[in-house]
Structure formats: C-alpha cells, structure tokens
C-alpha cells in the first residue's frame, strides 16, 4: 500500500467527508462562473499537492495543462456564437467568446477531476462501505469495486509489463512497435480483470456480504469536531447554492461575455465558496503547523 | 524506426490536408462591403428577417439576448437583392447577412441526414433561445417549402421571409414539418 498520511482532513467522519466532496463537485459542475471555477480548481489542486507531495503533483499537472489547452482549442471549432469574431473558417466565425468559454470549461473539467482524485484518496473503500453498506449493499459494493479498479489496473499493468519485458518480449524500438506491445499487455490485463471480478464476487458471496444479521465493525465515531465541520460545510454550501439559484453568480459567455460583477452579494458567494474549497487544504496546513509547534516545545 | 517515420509523415500530411481544405478569412474579408447593384434587367428577390414572435414571448427569452431583439421585430425589412442564376434560399441569406453584417450561424449540409444547411441562429438569436420549441424557419411567397433552404431554388420576384418561431412554426403559420406530421 501507498503510505497514507494520517492527517487532519482524512480523519473526519465519512459522512462529513462525503457531504463535503459531493457538494463541492456538484457546485463546480453546475456553475460557469470563472471566479468560482478558479477557486474550486486551486482548492482541489492545493489539497492534492499537500496530500501527495510535490513530485506526484507536478507529474500530473503537465498532463492536465495539456488537456485544458486541447479543450480550449476544440471548443471554438464547434461553437461559433459570440460577438467578437477573430477570423472565419469555412464561412463560420472563430470567436473570442468561444475560446474563453473553452478555457472556462477546461477549468471546470480539470478542477472536477482533481476533486475526484482527492475523493478517491480520502474516501477509501472502507469508508464508503461504512456509509452505504447497510442501506444499499449491492450498489455500494459495485461502486467501491469499480472505483477500486482503476488503481488496481495501474498496479497490474505495471506488473504485466515488467514480466513481459523481463521475458524479453516487446523489446523492439519505435513508436508503432511500442503501441502494439502496449495493446497486447492491455488485452491480457482485461482478461485478468474479468476473471478477477468474478473471483471477487464469489468471494464476497462466500463471506456472506449483504446478508441479514451480518454486522460491521468500524472505528468511525462522530465527534464534536465532525459536527463543527459539518455545520460549517452545510452553511457555506447553503449560501453558495442560494446565490446560484438567485442568479447572483450567473455568468454568460454567449453572445457577449458578461462583466465581472463584484457587488456585496457576489463577494459573499465567492468568499463562501472560496472558504469551502479551501477547507481541506487549510485543515491539513493547520495540522502541519500544530505539529511543528508542538514539536518545538519538546 | 522506419515505421515511426512513416507514421509521423502520415500525421503531417493529414494536418496539411486539413489546413489546405480549410478556408481562412479575416473579418473584413467575410463581411463584404459590396453587393451587386440592381440594374433594370437583373432578377431580384425580396428578403425579410423578422422575430416578431419573440416580442410576444419575452418572458421565455434569455435575459442577455434582449438587446438583440429589435423593437419592431424586424432584423431586416423587405429589402431587394439581385438574384443570380441557381441561387438557393441559403445562398441569398448568406450573401445578405455578410453584406448587412448580421451574424448568422449554420450547420453544413454534410452534418445532418437531410442533406441541407440548417440555420442555427441569426443576429445572436439561436434555436432554443426563446423556449424549447424555438428556431428559424423560412417561407417563400407565404408558403413554407417542404425542403431545406439550400435545396430551394429561387425565381425572379420571390419574397423570402425568415421568421423566428417560438412554437415549432405554428405561431408563424407554418403547418408543415415537425408541427403536424411529425411522429
């Protein structure tokens, strides 16, 4: 297993964590306001950075920047609305608005992806099963198994690849050869995973998962600290969702980009969402500071 | 390594073909200043672009689009233009919007199963901008043709009206198409 730090935000009660992630991701998915999307992105990225360390963080970041640029280029090719045409392609305009909207979507996508990555780091399978194992045993098992498959695939892929190359296969140089080799490795991975999932199912059944009267053991208790976080999260999300439904944070790209509005109401929504998206980062940071402070006293 | 070079070469050729096949124009080139003058013997058509139905359905309209709806509902009122041979309804619309600097967006004929151009929006008023049954329809001499605008050949003296509908054509008197014989 990877070394998972026991730290501030991770140790909260699963219900609080779940509420938090769901609310942040949903708000980020349903708003187009660049300020809020930017806050969500920065919050998610900084939390991920604190959790995983600088090296892993920069490795991924390059890929996501490329992806964002790609989306920003693709959008104006298909969407021609907007009052500021830059030039015309085959009789259809490429507009400034469409490009900026592409950038906005890219911000949202990368932000949501980062939050989902943080989610899978923090909400481990045991927490998810603790929350939903009793209420919807089948669905929660399927979900947690599906979410688990991606890291599992990665590990297995590495394993198969190293076995194949140690056997001396797929050693020819060149891009095309590499791709065909990867495809073969991938096909064997798929075969293995199908078999594995059947095995897992049988094994879970043999252990009586989801049967009546089966008890769970878990070490999660709902403390005062959890209550504090939960109230904080609900209040902040409430403000943000109220603001969104009243149209305070509305931002239009077509046909004309709306102006940034920094009235009191807007600032209230932005600040609440900003605090919301920085909660995990700040609590991690607080933990680090407290640790340093207590260590200095010894 | 040989295969690699071939693959890279193929990608480069594909990119070049795409770029050559694309027609790039600056804004000034697109919006032509000049259009053929009407002479005594030239064939002409009259064109109108109107969105009067929006005035009755203002509450459904997106707030940010309000300023693109003219007060009298006419984006272009009864204007005569020269008709060239083999001009379709779409050709005229394309020429006129370029000349009058009216924004217009369409799907190409190759992108849908009807094999005809579809007008998505004129003057920033798009399909679905004013309720989910809204969009652009056209009529020639008061009749709504049963075919797309890039298939309809115009005759001398035709009167083309592009109207914005908020109710699948029923509110502008169009009975063909999705309204009545749709499944």
Quick gist of this model?
The complex is a heterodimer of chains A (298) and B (183). Chain A is mainly alpha-helical and 298 residues long.
Give the strand order, joined by hyphens, for the main sheet of chain B: 3-2-8-7
What is the annotated CATH architecture of chain B?
A: Beta Complex
- Using the alpha-carbon principal axes, give the shape of chain A: globular
| DSSP summary, beta strand count of chain B | 8
Largest interface: A-B, 22 and 24 residues
- Along the chain, the helix and strand elements of chain A come as HHHEEHHHHHH
Summarize the main sheet of chain B: 4 strands, mixed
Rg of chain B, Å, rounded = 20 Å
Strand order of the largest sheet of chain A: 1-2
**Intertermini distance of chain B:** 57 Å
- What share of residues of chain A is helical? over 70%
| Overall pLDDT level of chain A | 86
Oligomer: heterodimer
CATH topology of chain B: Ferric Hydroxamate Uptake Protein, Chain A, domain 1
Strand content of chain A: under 5%
How much helix, percentage-wise, in residues of chain B? 10-25%
Rounded to an integer, what's the Rg of chain A over CA atoms? 23 Å
CATH structural class of chain B: Mainly Beta
β-strand percent of chain B reads: 15-25%
Helical stretch tally of chain A: 9
Query: Please, how many helices of chain B?
Result: 5
